[in-house]
Amino acid sequence: MKNILGLISKEHQVRFSYIEDEIVVYALTPPDKNWSLEEKINYLKGITRLQFKRISEKYFTIYDDKKVDKPLCGFLIDAVSGKGIENALIKIEKTDFTTFTEANGHFTIPKISSEKIQIQHQGYQTFSISPEALNVPDCPKFQLQPILQNLDEVITHRYLTTGISKKNDGTIVIKPKKFGLLPGLIEPDVLQTMQQIPGIISIDETISNINVRGGTHDQNLFLWNGIRMFQTGHFFGLISAFNPSLAQNITISKNGSSAFFGESVSSLIDISSQNSNTENTNASLSSNMISAEFYTKVKISDNSNFTFSARRSLTDIFQSPTYRSYSNRIFQNTVITDLTTNAIVGYKSNVDFYFYDITAQFEQKIGAKHQFNIDVIAIENTLKFDQSTATLNKNSELEQESFGGSLQWKTNWNANHNTEFKAYFSAYDLNSTNQTLESNQILAQKNKVMDYGFQIRNTNRINEQLTINTGYQLNEIGVTNFDEINLPLFSRTITNVLISHAGIAEGVFETVSKKTFIRGGLRANYFDKFGLFLAEPRLQFSQALGNHWRLEILGEQKSQTLSQIIDLQQDFLGVEKRRWTLANDQSIPVQKSNQLSVGLSFKKNNWLITVDNFYKKITGITSSSQGFMNQFELERAIGDYQVLGSEFLIQKSFNRFYTWLSYAYNDNKYDFKTLNSTSFPNNFEVTHAVSWAAMYEWKKVKLALGAKWHTGRPITTPTNFTVTEANPTIVYNAPNNEQLKDYFQVNFSASKEWRLGATTRLQTSASIMNLLNTRNSINRFYRVNTTDNTVESVDTFSLELTPNVNVKLMF
Length: 811
What we know:
Elements: H1 2-12, E1 15-17, H2 20-23, H3 37-48, E2 51-54, E3 59-63, E4 72-78, E5 89-92, E6 98-100, E7 106-109, E8 117-121, E9 124-129, E10 141-144, E11 154-156, E12 164-167, E13 172-174, H4 190-193, E14 200-202, E15 210-212, E16 221-224, E17 227-228, E18 233-234, E19 239-240, E20 249-253, E21 268-272, E22 282-288, E23 291-301, E24 304-313, H5 321-330, H6 335-338, E25 348-366, E26 370-388, E27 393-414, E28 417-435, E29 442-461, E30 466-485, E31 490-510, E32 516-527, E33 532-545, E34 549-560, E35 562-565, E36 579-582, E37 591-604, E38 607-622, E39 638-654, E40 657-672, E41 679-681, E42 688-698, E43 701-710, E44 714-715, E45 738-739, E46 743-755, E47 761-769, E48 777-785, E49 790-797, E50 802-810
Parallel strand pairs: 1-3, 4-10, 16-21
Antiparallel strand pairs: 2-3, 4-7, 5-6, 5-8, 8-9, 11-12, 12-13, 13-20, 14-15, 16-17, 18-19, 20-21, 22-23, 22-50, 23-24, 24-25, 25-26, 26-27, 27-28, 28-29, 29-30, 30-31, 31-32, 32-33, 33-34, 34-37, 35-36, 37-38, 38-39, 39-40, 40-41, 40-42, 42-43, 43-46, 44-45, 46-47, 47-50, 48-49
């Protein structure tokens, strides 16, 4: 603007008087040289809204509207939730000026340049605005679009905490980059977070034993960028194996999953860290009392990104109070602690444990239509256990590792048609060597899974309301189990391979008003080894009932060929005793599930109430997959279980404060025809479960307090606590005739964030698990004490009071 006024002054021999910061924000195309002075001034007035006052024939005064006589200002608003966006970077291009938005999204900048103003935030799409757009009487509001957009309409945007939402198709979506805070957590650990959802619980506190609506952990399908994961935890189940700094979108489905997902008779956990937008370079470093991690995303070009993350435990460097608490919990009643009850005198033991995980990703856009992704992940847990006396030294070792990779190509042929091709492989290895001081026997065990597959998906949008998806999937799974003993010499290797084909078709209908949503699908599976064909229908239906109520009906039939079994409780040092095995359609059948749920939700004035009632039946389970530690421990029987249950959630937000209370009821019964007691309570039955939490967020401080209570798990008690010397065998009552005492735990978390520079932030957080140090028994089994021929009970107790802190630097 200043340059244009200079040109007009020379062309017409006039002078302009003005205040510089009133015109500096304007940048425009110069008027035509052939225009008259009056035409040029009218042109400038029409574009800039500036006022021109003629003082004399050759002098003009330029002044601005008094209502905009202030610094430039605005608000940044989340386009989905409508809430202000804090900590967005505001930068004036070609200058050194930067600032950040406040808690409500407000920002101010001085009038110093007509250059574009760039707005950046790691969770939202970057965009630019002109300073003229801010030079208005009131501070304008600008809506920022989240980086990840869901096609399905969202029912509620804050489900339990910020960053968790529920969609119309019944799935729950977690976005860690926008994550709030949950009691007991210092980071957005996806597998710990999902246990806050009604109907999802871990009966033994581990994330390697997550029970969804009464199912076992192996009945859940875990995917990371399309790669099936057979190992989900570090520290043998106490920590998630997925780096919390990396994951951007986690979708959880308890029922009614898409027909494009198979191989699970319970839930689906689909973790995606892929992003359709090319982000600016950013990184983070963090450490807590268990591990340290690094994350970076590098913008290679306008169309490509490279992402790398790594995490390693500090447990072999120093033993923090958190590590000691975790060790006490995970190594209870295992080979690691057995020597404490033996008669060996003067022994020494040493436990050396560490874990790590690494991910690498490359994203490339090719032209306007194509996108290419490569993803790689590696996970490892290593445990070394040394036992020694003055004359003996024995070494045991347990190693658990996973490695996977995927390649994905997506083409958008036009606005209504796209095709996606995905190929992946996943490898899992569990190896152990067990030596004891009591004997010279050496036991070696291995469990190995190799999974290869590819999937093609074609999407056609017929019209604004109807979309048709079709596809094909091929999988080859190989499982090897190996056992070897030196005294007496014994060796066994069993390898099974299964190839499966699946044809997929589904239709998605959604009205323009978003009041009605229907997704119906069919997955047709063929297992060539058995000559078995299974058709699996899927249904998701959601209907708005007025402005505040919504009805949801979900149903599915699914199958599963891969499962985990326990041969003996002390296998693999008793730490990770489950091994993967393939169905053989005889002693291990293909598992099948039928599930139906009906739910109702209400949302008004920041109140959220949801109720879900469901029926679930799983057939083809084996007794060895259920972890029996009673009269059925060594039995090999085939049966089923069925669950009737209800889940309830009530939630309320009060600006900075929000709270929720959830309740889940399960009636879960086994039915094994060949066992003496055919129908009895499921080992994973939790009849009643209640969870409560309250969170407070103020500026950059977050506090969370919560409690969990549930009835104890079923156990089988002996009929008599003495045994005969001739036959020291325990005689049990009816299976699962009693329950452990109720479980109760209180957890607390707090976090605060500091801004250290234009693009640098420091985040600190602290948590206390089991704040009241409640001693909860989470499992009990019985064994014979041969010293006095009595039956003694052995309890496994929950995690004791466990503090943890985390420091994270983002730049």
